Backbone:
């Protein structure tokens, strides 16, 4: 299976901060990388697919980049509703796998 | 919209059948997937079924114990869970495969609200 490693596992930030989360794959996955946001008690929400394509309806402050093994999710200006856990997920293999998550908390 | 049902408390070794009712899209056009998430833990893919139901895949952790199926006439997805273990305790989510990746699976653009399965004596 392809292992996905996210860092950091948690971070504290303030409203208006620029936040960057990284995701590394254990082998090259081209651009087959998706990002999700999950709030407590809720289902995950798709934010970014194919490494950098913004899902319809997702605010433009979210962006993704990377290819091969290293990927980044950036929130350009953190908003109160963005405090949540973020997961990367690879779609290179039929047996999809997720990163361990990054919890974004209020500083 | 996706709505799961059928969860609850079951004893180790028991069985449970989850259902996922779909609405608002042409269900028969999409591959569907089940995920789970143990309380306070990360997301785990467990099974996938093609749009016709002809192709199915399972994670090693559930292979031989869980069976995915669908009824396109009823716009419904199912997960039959047998020989349940304590480590199967989790929230279970059904999700729609957007179909962007032609040779793979995902991304998953619509998710159910999740349903809790607790395996305990």
Residues:
């Amino acid at each position: 299976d392809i292992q996905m490693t996210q860092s950091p596992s948690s971070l504290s930030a303030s409203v208006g901060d620029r936040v960057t989360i990284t995701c590394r794959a254990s082998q090259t996955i081209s651009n087959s990388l998706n990002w999700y946001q999950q709030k407590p008690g809720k289902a995950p929400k798709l934010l970014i697919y194919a490494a950098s394509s913004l899902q319809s309806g997702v605010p433009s402050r979210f962006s993704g980049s990377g290819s091969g093994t290293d990927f980044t999710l950036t929130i350009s200006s953190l908003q109160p509703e963005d405090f949540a856990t973020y997961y990367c997920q690879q779609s290179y293999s039929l047996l999809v796998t997720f990163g361990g998550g990054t919890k974004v908390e209020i500083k | 919209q996706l709505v799961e049902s059928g969860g609850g408390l079951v004893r180790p070794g028991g069985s449970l059948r989850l259902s996922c009712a779909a609405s608002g899209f042409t269900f028969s056009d999409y591959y569907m997937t089940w995920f789970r998430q143990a309380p306070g833990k990360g997301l785990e893919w467990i099974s996938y079924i093609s749009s016709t139901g002809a192709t199915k895949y399972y994670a090693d952790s559930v292979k031989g114990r869980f069976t995915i199926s669908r009824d396109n006439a009823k716009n419904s997805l199912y997960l039959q869970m047998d020989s349940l273990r304590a480590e199967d305790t989790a929230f279970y989510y059904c999700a729609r495969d957007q179909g962007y990746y032609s040779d793979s699976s995902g991304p998953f653009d619509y998710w159910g609200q999740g349903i809790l399965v607790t395996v305990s004596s």
Summary: The longest strand of chain A covers residues 19-25. Residues 47 and 56 of chain A are 8 Å apart (CA to CA).
